[in-house]
Amino acid sequence: MPRTKAEPLVALSCRGRLSEVRPALADLRAALAAQTGGACAEGLDSVEIAVAEVLNNIVEHAGPSDRRGAIRIEVRAGACGLLVRVSDDGRPMPNGAPPCAALPALDVPCVDLPEGGFGWGLVQALTAELHYRRAAGRNELALRFACPGGGVAEPPDAAKTPD
Amino acid sequence: MQLDSRDDGATRIVAVREPRIDAAVAIRFKDLMRAESGDAPPRVVLDLGAVEFIDSSGLGAIVAAMKQMEDRTLELAAVTPAVDKVFRLTRIDRIFTIHPSVEAALAAPAG
């Protein structure tokens, strides 16, 4: 993923608590909407859904943290889409990598239908690139969204209908 | 988290009065749905018209709600764009009958 030294479009942080996920997502969406003039609501949906899954995962698995800045979110406009970097001060990912992104199978009897396990599959499906690294005692996830931000003129991706 | 329900013939319409079904409310949603379905007619339609956002926890809670329906059916109605996106990407849209509106659900045969 190309690194950019430009100032982020959006930078925000929160504690690693479930109660802070909703407000952080609302702040992120409002800031992005202001940057993009409200264009590309579908792109904003994609970012919000993917970042929600990442934040839920941090709060649930990396461990709760009451430190301010436990979670940091930065968004930059890259040449080929929106770059979102989410870092946290929690435990590293097991095996040094994000979990399996395969979506759970649905061709099973009703009683066996999965009630979870959709999160990473969603993140994978919504992003063009996804990278994880552990650096300076923090987890860093870098997500690239093909949908435009910061005035990059591309149509929203409509090619993801499964049928 | 608040659900409102009304019966129309053999169908119960359960409307979610909440803009988000996410990790913060998923368990509450599942519990409220269990209470709604206890004495429900054979068909339950979940009106998602007010729900603007769902995450994987909320999605799991809807699947859980369907599984606790026993011999009733759970159908969905009035899905908004971001929720539809999550349904499509996870392919959950293939296991639910989804109606464009509550009116369309009531006009459709039970499925």
Automatic annotation (TrEMBL), chain A:
**Keywords (A to Z) from UniProt:** ATP-binding, Kinase, Nucleotide-binding, Serine/threonine-protein kinase, Transferase
Which CDD domains does this chain map to?
HATPase_RsbW-like
Q: Which is a Pfam family this sequence falls into? A: HATPase_c_2
UniProt-recorded Gene Ontology molecular function terms: ATP binding; protein serine/threonine kinase activity
The segment(s) forming the Histidine kinase/HSP90-like ATPase domain are 17-144
**What is the recorded name of this protein?**
ATP-binding protein
Show the taxonomic lineage: Bacteria, Pseudomonadati, Pseudomonadota, Alphaproteobacteria, Rhodobacterales
From TrEMBL, chain B:
Matching entries from InterPro entries are given as: Anti-sigma_ant, STAS_dom, STAS_dom_sf
Q: What's an example of a GO molecular-function annotation for this chain?
A: anti-sigma factor antagonist activity
In which domain of life is the source organism classified? Bacteria
SUPFAM superfamilies (UniProt xref): SpoIIaa-like (SSF52091)
Q: Report the residue ranges that make up the STAS domain in this protein.
A: 21-109
Homology family: Belongs to the anti-sigma-factor antagonist family.
Q: Please report the name of this protein according to its UniProt entry.
A: Anti-sigma factor antagonist
